[in-house]
Design brief:
Elements: H1 2-22, E1 29-33, H2 40-56, E2 60-64, H3 71-78, E3 86-91, H4 93-100, E4 112-121, E5 123-127, H5 136-145, E6 151-154, H6 160-172, E7 177-180, H7 184-193, E8 198-202, H8 203-211, E9 216-220, E10 248-254, H9 259-272, H10 276-284, E11 287-289, H11 294-315
């Protein structure tokens, strides 16, 4: 009798668990964004939230938690309940921060469950028009002939634009001098003014300056050409084989989030990313859609952590 009772309880518990997972979501879902409102990542998150709201049948709320190189938002989500109701819009900095900062209160692999690498951020290599280089190969030649004349700007120490340039230094065997800024706008102002000769930057911010001829576009940083700039060569194919840098944005959940919940989120996101209006909006924001599966995103994240840890170590870059 007792065995039958215990078996019945176990069956009921399993049924309740299955019902709970099948019913997901049963309340609003929050996407925590580690940036201030108004930027490309924030706009993208709100677009996804709007579309996922319709597909999930529950409100999807965007909550901005900027600061500390995205670590405030990352730590917050790492400590959230692993139930699929609190998600993080992760950026490349999720995996880079442990190499840059002396204290990081989360592990980018152990404390999160990947959902999907949503998109790559289109980054470009630009030079001041006074530099006599029309491609990356010519730029490397000029830099080697003028080892003390090149300053490059970044949007801050330890940011992706800083590390992309340091990776360039390493692969090309050159030594450009780093000048950090607090954002693209002041760096681009000095770039146009001639105080900087080289810059790696998001196309979303440098695009207007490229179109006006105030800076010269040489290449995109990714391994393959960008969907947004199909006629622009990569750094690797235009003179520096082996170079690749891909800033990215993706969705992650707290570790131990149930697989059925993760798979539900991925499946609905996958459908959202197929929508023509969503694809057009991503292009306008300088984003190339990826939409990888959870396991693919996890494998990429582990490789990315190792890659940028080496760049940080070799360059001596620190953010604190």
């Amino acid at each position: 009798m007792i065995k039958q009772l215990m078996a019945g309880i176990a069956l009921a518990a399993a049924s309740l668990c299955a019902t709970a997972q099948t019913a997901y979501p049963g309340k609003p879902v929050t996407i925590v964004v580690p940036f201030s409102p108004g930027g490309a990542a924030d706009i993208m998150s709100r677009l996804l939230a709007e579309r996922l709201n319709k597909r999930l049948g529950q409100p999807v709320i965007v909550e901005n938690k900027p600061g500390a190189g995205t670590m405030i938002a990352s730590e917050y989500v790492a400590k959230a309940a692993p139930d699929g109701y609190t998600l993080l819009l992760a950026a490349s900095s999720l995996g880079i921060a442990p190499s840059l900062y002396s204290k990081v209160n989360y592990d980018p692999v152990k404390d999160f469950t990947p959902v999907s690498q949503v998109a790559s951020v289109v980054h470009v290599l630009v030079v001041h028009p006074s530099i006599p280089a029309k491609n990356v190969g010519e730029l490397v030649t000029w830099l080697k002939a003028n080892p003390t004349k090149a300053n490059y700007g970044s949007v801050g120490a330890g940011t992706s634009t800083h590390l992309e340039a340091e990776l360039f230094n390493s692969v090309a065997g050159v030594k450009m001098q780093h000048i950090p800024y607090k954002g693209s706008a002041p760096a681009l102002t000095d770039m146009v003014g001639g105080q900087l000769q080289v810059m790696f930057d998001a196309y979303a911010s440098s695009g207007p300056f490229i179109k006006d001829g105030k800076v010269r576009l040489l290449a995109v940083t990714t391994a393959q050409r960008s969907q947004s700039l199909p006629d622009t060569p990569t750094v690797a194919e235009s003179g520096l084989p082996g170079y690749e840098a891909m800033p990215w944005l993706g969705l992650v959940a707290p570790a131990k989030t149930p697989a059925p919940v993760v798979n539900k989120l991925y499946a609905e996101l996958h459908e959202v990313l197929k929508e023509p209006e969503v694809q057009d909006k991503f292009r306008s924001l300088g984003l190339d859609i990826i939409g990888s599966k959870p396991e693919e995103f996890g494998a990429f994240l582990r490789r990315d952590i190792v890659k940028w840890a080496k760049v940080v170590k070799d360059s001596g870059a620190r953010a604190d």
